[in-house]
Design goal:
Blueprint: H1 10-18, H2 23-32, E1 35-36, H3 37-43, H4 49-61, E2 65-70, E3 76-81, H5 83-116
Antiparallel strand pairs: 1-3, 2-3
Organism: Neorhizobium phenanthreniclasticum
InterPro entries: HTH_HxlR (IPR002577), WH-like_DNA-bd_sf (IPR036388), WH_DNA-bd_sf (IPR036390)
Protein name: Helix-turn-helix domain-containing protein
Amino acid sequence: MSGWDAGNCPVRDVIDRIAGKWSTLLLEALARRPYRFGELRRLVPDISQRMLTQTLRDLQRDGYVDRQVFPTKPPSVEYRMTELGRSLFEPLSKVLRWAEENHPAVKAARAKFDESEV
């Protein structure tokens, strides 16, 4: 493929971000309803505060998530999915459903492959 620039590949650029360890889980949660930071932290208890903050910032930077600050004392912050995020989540939800339905078959295929490699 002459002239192909892997660094400017739009598919890789988008998929690399949403395929992160935490991005899909957060998008799945935010597809249901808006959440405050602490609520998201409780939904994904094994994510560190730093990683939750960074992942939300990355999703916000890419336009999938919006952060709204409410003028309360102390200020409260809510995260919600944007229209762009919703348009992404529609096809992504099909992949997530496929993964759940086919996970046993994938695990079986891995085990079969690993046995043949011994």
